[in-house]
Amino acid sequence: MSIFSRNKKSTLASTAMLLVFGLASTAQADPISIVVTDKAAVIHRDGTTRIITSEEVSKVKAGTTGPSRRAWGVLVSQGVSAASHLEISGKNGPISIATEGGKAHGVQAGAKGSNANGQDKSEISLADNIKVVTTGSHSVGLHAIDGGTINSSADIETSGMNGFGIFAESYSKITQDGGNIVTTGYYGHALIANNDIANAEAGKVTAIGTVIETGGDWAHGAFADNGGAIFLDGAKITTEGSRAFGILAAKNSTVSGQAAVFTINDKSHAVQAGANGSTGDGSDKSVVNLNAGSTVSTAGSDAFALHAIDGGTINSSADIKTSGKNGFGIFAESASTINQTGGSVTTDGGYGHGLIANDDRKTTGGKVVATDVKVQTNKDWSYGAFADNGGHIKLNGGSVTTGGDRSFGLLAGKKSMIISDADVSTKGSKAHGIQAGLNGSTPHGLDQSVITLKNAAKVTTTGNDAFGLHAIDGGKIDGTVNVTTSGINGFGVFAETFSTINLSNSVIETSGAKGYGIIANNDVSGTAGVIFVTDTVIKTTGKAASGVFVKDGGTVSLIGGTVAASGLDAAALEINGSGTLNIEGTVLKSAQGPTIFVTFSSAEEIANVTFGAGTVAVDNNGMLVNVARYEGGSDANMNITLKAGSEASGDIVDTDQKGSGQTHVNVEENAKFNGKISGIQDLKTESGTQMSFAEGTSIGGNIVATGSTYSFHSTGALIAGNVELYSGSSTGGGTTDTPITVSGNVLVDQTSFMGGNWDIGGDLTAQGTLRPGNSIGTVTVGGDVTFGADSVYEVEVAGNGASDRIDATGKASLQGGRLDVFALDNKVSYQDGQTYTILTAANGIEGTFSEAISKSIFLTTSLDHQVNKVDLKIGLVADPIDDVVFEKVAKSNNEISTARALDSLAQEGSALELYNSILFLTDEAEARDAFNQLSGDVHDSVNTGLIDTANLTADAINNRLRSAFDGVGSQNVPVLNFAQSPNGRAPKPFDAVKPASLDYGVWASGFGSWVNHDGNSKAGGLKTITGGFLSGVDVGLNSGWRLGVVGGYSQTDLNGKGRNASADSDNWHLGIYGGNQWGPIGLRAGLVHTWHSIDSSRSVSYSGFSDSLGADYHARTLQAFGELGYRIDTTVAAFEPFANFSHVRLHTDGFTERGGAAALTVDGNNTNTTFTTLGMHASAPLPLDGANASLKGTLGWRRSYGDITPESTHLFAGSNPFTVEGVAIARDAALVEAGFDMALTDSAKFGLSYVGQFGSGAKQNGFNATLNMKF
Questions:
Q1: Residue 531 to residue 1250: CA distance in whole angstroms
Q2: Is 748 helix (H, G, I), strand (E, B) or coil?
Q3: Which of 55-59, 706-710, 1009-1013 has the lowest average pLDDT?
Q4: 652: which residues sit within 8 A by CB, 6+ positions away?
Q5: Is 247:271 a contact under the CB 8 Å cutoff?
Q6: Each residue of 395-404: b (16+ CB within 10 Å) or e?
Q7: Are 173 and 144 in contact (CB under 8 A)?
Q8: Quick check: 210 and 176 in contact, CB under 8 A?
Q9: Distance CA 672, CA 611 (A)
Q10: Separation between Cα atoms, residue 879 and residue 884, nearest integer Å
C-alpha cells in the first residue's frame, strides 16, 4: 500500500479504528508507501494527517519491499502554495520504517523539483520509539532536501554502500535529538550535510546526545560537504572502517559543538577539516569547532585525531588521544590551521606525534597554535611537536612530554617554524628536548628551520645522548630558556653543521658525564655550528662535562653570565681541533679542571680563544689553558687573546710540541693575567696590561710589551726570543741566583722601566730606565750594553758595599744617560761613606754617564769612570759647621728639635733603623712631616686640652654659689634643703623656704664642651670633647658665709689633628668652695683637685717606615679660683659686673711609649697657667603667657698668663733628649653665654643655655640643659 499526499497539510493520527487511503502507484519506479498493521490506524482529521499506534497494537511499519529503486518509506512534499507536515510517534509502541531497495530512503522531507530553490517547506517529526532501517545502496535513513525539515529522535540503521544515516541537502535541515545511528556499508556516513545546488543555502544537521557508529570503510561519522553545516551537542561518534573519519568538513563546510569521537581502523582520522583536492591550493575554508568537554581518540595506524588540510581550520578544546602507529594528535597540512586551547594531546603508538604541521602541497605551510595544552607521547620516535616542510607551530604555555627513545619534544625541519614558551621534557635515550633541522642524507644547510623560545620555558631531558637544544643542517634556535639534562652525553645546547643558536637570559644545567653545557661542531663537511649566548648561567657537574665545547670549527660567543664546570676533569671551555671561543664579560669557573682545555690531532687545526672586557677566569685547578697534542696535531696552532678589561688566572701550558705548531698569546689593553706560561711561542701585550708570571714560565718566542706591567716569579723565567718594552712598560722579578733568562736581545724604550734580575744572551739597549733587581740586583749581558742619552740607571746601594750591578761580556756604550742612586739597607750605617761598582764591561766602556743624582736628600754621590768599570761613591750631606744632617731641612721649633735628636741616634739596632728611615727620604716636605710625626707633640697638646677644660668645674661651682645667693644670671640647680631637727629626730623638709634661710643644700650639675684648637707651624691641632657632672653639699652659716664640698667625674676625648694620634682621660674631681653676699657685693671662691688617668695612642707612617705607639700614664690638676661681683638692679633687668681669677697647676707623670724604634720616653712635667676674666652677668624676666621665665647671659674677656704653651722633654732610645711644644692655649678669648630659664611647675624649672669661648686659634662651644626639681 502507498500514501502520496500533495497540495494539502497531511498529518497521520492513530485512533481505535483502521483507515487506509492514498494514491495507488502506477509504476514500479519511485514507490512511496506506508504499511499500517496490527490494529494501528492512519487518520486524516482537520487538515492534519497522523500515524500513531494505539494502546493495543504491537507495531506499525512503513516501508518498501522488494527490489524497487528510489522507494521512500515516508515522503512528504508540497506544491507551490502550501506546506506539508507529518508527525510520526511511537509513544505507545514501536514504529519501524524500513526500506530494502537501492536509493530507497527511510524518511524524506521535500522533493527536488525541476527548479528546486528551497521552497518545499515540508516537515517530518519522528518521536518516541521509532526505528528507521535501510539496506539498499545509496539509501538514506533520514533525508531532507529543497527546504525540507526533519526533527527526529529515532534510531537509524543503514547497511548499504553509500547508505547514509542522516542527509541534509540544499536549504534543508535535520535535527536528531538522541537516538542511535548505525551504518555498516562502504561510504556509509552517519551524518552528512551538503549543498547539492550551486549557490544555494547548504543543508544543516544537528545531533544532540546522539550515539553514532559506522562500520564500513570510508564511512564517516559526521560529514559536512560543499558548505554543509553540522552541529554536535554531546554526540558520541565511533568509526570502525578503514579511512572512516569521525568528523569531516570539506569544501567550505562547518562542523561545530561538543562530541566524543573515536576511530578504530587505520588511516581513520577522528576529525578533519578540508579535503585533499586535486590542486591543494588552500581554497577549502572548512571549519571544525570542538568545544571544551570534547574527546577525540584514534586506535588505528596512520590515524590522526585532528587533521586540517588544504585551507581547513579546526578550533578545539578537546582532550585528544591516539594509540596506533603514526597516530598523530594534531596535524595541520598545507594552508590549514588548527587552534587547540586547553585540553590534552596524548599519543601511545610508535611514531605517534602530538602536534604536526607541514606543507604537503608546497603552498603555504600548515599552522598549529596550542594554548595551555598538555602534550604527551609515550613511544619511541614519537615527537611532541613537529613542524615539517614549512609548517608553523606556536605553543603558548602548556607542556610537552615524550617518553620514548629518539622522541623529540619539539622538532622543526625543512624550513619550518616553531614558537614556544611551553615546558618540554623527554625521558628516552637520544630523545632531544628541542631540535631545529633534520638529519638529511646530504646536509648542506638548506633546512633553515627556526625555533623561537620565550619566557624562560623549561626544557628537561633525562636519557643518555639526549640534548636539551639541538640545531642541525641550517636549523636555528633563538630565545630564552631553562635547560636541564642528566644523561650521559646529555648536552645542554648543541649546534651542528650550518646551524645557529642564539640564547639570552637563560639557564643551562647538565649533570651527566660528558654532558657539555654548550657544544658547537661540524659533523659533516660544511660551515660549523655557531652559538651566541648572552647573560646566561651555564652549569655542569658531570665528569669531563665541560661548560662550553667546540669541535671541528664550531664557534661559541658568550656575553655576560657565568660558566661553572665542577665535575672531575671538566673545563669551563674546551676545544677539540679547530674552534673559536669569544668570551666577553663572563665569569668562568672550573673547580677540577683548567679554564680552557684544547686537544689537537691534525696539522691544519687552529683554535682561537678571546677573552673580552669584563671576563673573569681566575677560578680553576690552577691551569688557565692546557693544550694537548696527539699524533698528527703537533703542527696545529693555538691563539689566545685577552681583550681589554678581562682578567685571567692560571697556567697556560702547551708542552707537547714536536712540530711547528705554536700557541700565541695576545693581551690587549687593561687586561690582567696571573699564572705560568709554558710552551707558548709569542707573547704580545698592550697598554694597561698587568702580567704576573708564576714559577716555571717558559716562552718559546718573543715578548713585545706596550704599556704593560710584567711581574716575573722569584725563580725567574725562560724566554727563547727577544724582549721589547714600549710605551711605559715595566718589569720585575727573578733573583741573582734565578734570574729571568733571555736568549735574544732586550730593548727598553725611552718611556719604559726594566727592573728585576736578568741574564741576557744578546744585547741590552736601554733608552729608558734600568733598575736591576727587586732590591739589590744584577743584570748579566752576553753581548753589548747601550745606555741612551735619555736613559736612567737607577742604582740601589747598601751600607755593606753591595749595590745594583750590570755585567756585560761585550762592551758598554754610555751616551750621557743619568744615574739615580737609592739607598737601601736601613740596618747599615752610611755615615762613613761607601764605594760601589755598578757597571762592568769586559770589552771596555765608551762614554760616560752625565751625572749621578742621589734620590736621598741627605746623601751625596760621585762617579769614577774606568776602562772596564764604573764606580759610585756615596756619603752624607752634612752641615759644614754643625756636622748635622737632618736639621738643615727642618723649619719649626719642634722639627728642629726632633731632627737634632734623630741626628744623634746611635748607629746600631733599632736606633740605626730609625736613622736610616729618615736618611733614605727623597723629599724635604716628607722629611718635615716625618719629624712632626716622630716628635710626639700630641702629648703636650693633651696638657693644653686638660688645662683649657679645667674651667668647667670652676664655672659649675660659681653657678651654684650665685644661685644660693640669688645671683644675677645664675641657673638654679637641683637642691635638697633640710632644717635641723631638735631632740635628735630625723630632719624634715620645709614646705617652702627661701634660699637665704637654708642651712644645708645638696645640688648636682652636668656640663659638656667641644674645644677646637687650630694647629700651627709648631704643633698639630687638637679637638677636645668633655662631658661630666658634679654634685656637692654646702651649709649656710649665721655670719652669711656658705661653705661646701664638691665631687664628680668627667671624661675627655682628645684627638690630635694631622698627627693620627688620640688620647682618652678619665677625670675624678674633689674640691671645696665658699662665698658670701654683702648687699650688692658678692664674693665666690673654691679649690678643686682633679686626678687624670690617660690612655694615648698614635701611629707614625712615612716612606719606608711605620710604627704604632701607645702609653698609659697619670696626671693631676690643682685649680684655685675666685670671683668678685657687684649687683645692679633696674626696672627691666639685673646686671652684675664681675672679675674672675683662676690658677691651674697641671702635673704629668713621666712614661715610656709602647712600640718600635719611634717610641718615646717623656719626662714628668709641671705646667702653671693663670686666667683672669672681666665681664658682666645679666638677667631679665621673660613674659610667656603667664609662665615664670627669664632670659640670662654673660659677656666677658679672658686673658691667660704663665705656661700657655705646654712643653716637655722627649727621648728616643739611643738619642739625645729634646724639647717639644704642644698647641698653645689662647692668650685672649671672648666669653659668651646666652640662655633662658622657665618654671614648669612650682617645684620644677627647666633651663637651656649656650656657652662659648673664642680666641685666636681656639674655639670652645658648650650647651647646658637642666631640669631643676625641688623636694
A1: 74
A2: strand
A3: 55-59
A4: 624, 625, 640, 663, 665, 675, 676, 677, 678, 680
A5: yes
A6: bbbbbbbbbb
A7: yes
A8: yes
A9: 11
A10: 5
Tens of pLDDT, residue by residue over 432-488, are 999 999 876 555 678 889 999 999 999 999 999 999 999 998 999 999 999 999 999
Rounded Cα distance between 960 and 958, Å, is 5
pTM over 0.70: no
Cell of 629: 697534542
Per the CB < 8 A criterion, the answer to whether 345 and 330 are in contact is: yes
Q: What is the pLDDT of residues 140-162, one digit of tens each?
A: 999 999 999 999 999 999 999 99
CA-CA distance, 431 to 1065, in Å (whole number)? 80
Q: Are 1220 and 1207 in contact (CB under 8 A)?
A: yes
Q: Which residues share a beta bridge with 278?
A: none
Return the closest-CA partner of residue 1152 out of 1205, 1068, 1219, 1209. 1209
Angle subtended at Cα 701 by Cα 699 and Cα 703, rounded to the nearest 5 degrees: 80
By 3-state DSSP, what share of the chain in percent is helix, strand and coil, each rounded to 5?
5, 50, 45
Residue 1266: predicted pLDDT: 58
Rounded Cα–Cα distance for residues 1136 and 1240 (Å)? 26
DSSP label at residue 284: -
Tell me the longest C-alpha to C-alpha distance in the chain. 165
From the number of C-beta atoms within 10 Å of its C-beta (0-12, 13-18, 19+), residue 42 rates as buried
Burial class for 413, CB neighbours closer than 10 Å (0-12, 13-18, 19+): buried
In a 3-state reduction of DSSP, which class is residue 18?
Answer: coil
The whole-angstrom separation of Cα 63 and Cα 133 is 9
- What SS3 class is residue 958? helix
Neighbours of 1080 (CB within 10 A): 12
Report yes or no: 643 and 612 within 8 Å, Cβ to Cβ. yes
d(Cα 670, Cα 674) in Å, to the nearest integer? 13
- Per the structure block, which three cell numbers stand in for 270? 577522528
Place of cell 704642644: 1222
What is the DSSP secondary-structure string of 1101-1119?
Answer: EETTEEEEEEEEEEEEEEE
Mean pLDDT across 731-753: 96
- H/E segment holding residue 765: strand 764-766
How many residues does this entry show for the chain?
Answer: 1271
Residue 97: C-alpha distances to residues 39, 68, 130, 899 (Å): 17, 16, 8, 135
Closest CA to 1059 of 1007, 1094, 1020: 1020
- How is residue 779 written as a grid cell? 743584570
